[in-house]
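Changelog note: in this version the structure field was regenerated for every chain. One regenerated record is shown below for reference.
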Amino acid sequence: MAHRRHTADVLIIGGGIHGCSAALHLARRGVSVTVLEKDHVGRHASGVNAGGVRRLGRAYAEVPLAQAAWRYWRDIRALVDDDCAFRVSRYLKVARTDKDLEDARTRVRDLNALGFSHEETIGREELRDLLPAADPGCIGALHVAGDGSANPARTTQAFRRRAAALGAVFNERTPVERVARTGATWTAATARGDFEAPTLINAAGAWGGPLAAQTGDAIPVEAHAPMLAITEPVAPFADAVVGVLNDALSFKQFPNGTILLGGGVRGKAFPDSNRTVLDFAGIARFLGTAADIFPAVAEARIVRAWAGIEGYTPDALPVIGRGREDGVIHAFGFSAHGFQLSPAVGELVADLATGAQPALPLDAFRPDRFNSGGPAI
């Protein structure tokens, strides 16, 4: 059979939510886009995360990104023609010690100095009003009204469907064997033929580091397996998304009474074989933390636990920006907190791919920040 060649304006490697978002924003601008996904869209971290749509607790460098993404989330249907099961509620990080509460106050002062007022510190009585089921030992919280949660698998597929409706072409079960640049063209070799484009976007998640190396960029990224667990239904007692200051917890209760628990505790990831191994001691840790905050959790039985494969950078900030070689853009390493950012990241990546000036500063996310190379943008 003759070797096939496929061409487009932009080639995206990685069919997670950031690859799908970039494809959508590019397709909205009339750019021809091909997406290559080694498994299927949303197979890894993008489809199996906690679905938190949060601005709360972001690294300061990420706050402008989270704010820009929040503006999309307020009417996500307008972008992807699906509400993505987005539930607006509130986000809280509970304080259990005086130090926790002082850390929260310091953070709010820092954010206010940077021009952001979305986070606030609340005390014991207001926390009791918002979370009456919380343990009396909780003395306050860091709080954001208007954040919430969405269904991650549904959201990723919604981005994919909308991008495809606008002309983006998705090739699933198409692992990339190698990439190389000849002249002004990047070529990704696969068993289905060669895919060519002048612009290559690396949105390969936990696999983004090895792919970056093929483009001439040394970007450290480690694959980990952030874990989640869900309980049997119990009587509803909390309608907010809840975390804990200075501890690992992500808690939300669905309308049917089931409770989703996580918080960044990791199992083991084996990216070469698409496998994860759960750490049951870690699951017990965040279950215990949840029970400390909500005594009712102690009676809930876990019915399922799982983990996705995610890429983590040394500083836990994503890599977003141009590579050393012309025509390369990286967008990976979201370190288990990229879901909410995706609508805005896709737009910024589309800006980079089309030569537009990104509306937000990306210096903190430069691909070359881990080495002594020149500026990425």
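Spot check on this record: Residues 75 and 83 are 8 Å apart (CA to CA). The longest strand covers residues 140-149.
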